[in-house]
Amino acid sequence: MPTYLYECENCGRFEEFQNITDDALEKCPKCDGKVKRIIGAPGIVFKGSNFYVNQAKKKSNSSKNNKSEKVS
């Protein structure tokens, strides 16, 4: 279920878990004041290993070979 961000005229911002098919809230659940939905960036959670680019790549022997060639 997605989390939607709302802003109440009286209470300020709050989050609400809703189905995608549900209509947007029109009243604050705390004070019955008028609310509007705020569009924000989604929260992303990276779990597991190898989600960084530098972790996924293995060191190659070509970089070692290039260093030895330059020294000669």
UniProtKB/TrEMBL annotation:
Residues 1-40 form the Putative regulatory protein FmdB zinc ribbon domain. Coiled coil: none annotated. It holds the Pfam family Zn_ribbon_8. InterPro entries: Regulatory_FmdB_Zinc_ribbon. NCBIfam families: CxxC_CxxC_SSSS. This is Putative regulatory protein, FmdB family. The lineage of its organism: Bacteria, Bacillati, Bacillota, Clostridia, Halanaerobiales.
